Amino acid sequence: MLESHPLRSLSLRIAAVAAAVTLPLFGLVAPADAESPYERGPDPTSASVLDNGTFSLSTASVSSLVIGFGGGTIYYPTSTSQGTYGGVVLAPGFTATSSAYSSIARRVASHGFVVFAIDTDTIYDQPDSRGSQILAAVDYLMEDASSAVASRLDETRIAVSGHSMGGGGTLAAANQDSSVKAAVALQPWHTDKTWPGIQVPTMIIGAELDTIAPVSSHSVPFYTSATGAREKAYGEINNGDHLIANTDDDWQGRLFVTWLKRYVDDDTRYSQFLCPAPSSVNLSDYRNTCPD
Questions:
Q1: Catalytic annotation present for 192
Q2: CB count, 10 Å around CB of 287?
Q3: What is the pTM of this model?
Q4: 152 or 277, higher pLDDT
Q5: Which of 37, 228, 274, 291 is most buried, with most CB under 10 Å away?
């Protein structure tokens, strides 16, 4: 029998120890292109993000007798086959009710989200009050939603949104609570023009022909002042007016959905639709810091 060389034996023992230490460490390093565990739905295309998603929906009504806001309707994917979904609370504008936003709520939910279109305590509530009500509705989703909704909601991933004074309320809510995952303000209106305290990824969608919340005195200053946001973007719908949230404009829907997908679902498949800036005659302006 051949006798082993002492130096070779030592080298083999060192190599074995190194392998035993190194191999488990490799298992702890995620691949650079690892998928988000929250990806929901098929791979997106430039056509699919302009349309409704692939998820069939169910609805649940919430009584106006709840404390903190005025009730509303929750739209959620019927299927549980892909796990839970991120959520978003959507607040109405001045004198409006949740029913005016059923189309855009359904659009967003159909891409794999639990969308709570709320009513406010009164239709005349001002933006800061609407912001507090948005956060009360977030608490409701996390703590008091029906079992059907609760079984589909990932309560760690909830965004805030709203239109007009509800959009101003969205900024107020995001400014107050940095634990929300993202914010999307639709044609927002607020007397406060500076929002440096907002930290969450924030999308502001303005409308070029908006005479109620003109972009020059509302959406653009809001975007510019949000210097503390981890990421931010501003999209302006060409020839759009103040009520495009009620008519469910396709490009508004694209911006809304892709922002939520990127920052609520951490789904980098949607980064391509946000950065570089999309080039389209449907946008009269687009600014962003580019998704990380």
A1: no
A2: 14
A3: 0.88
A4: 152
A5: 274
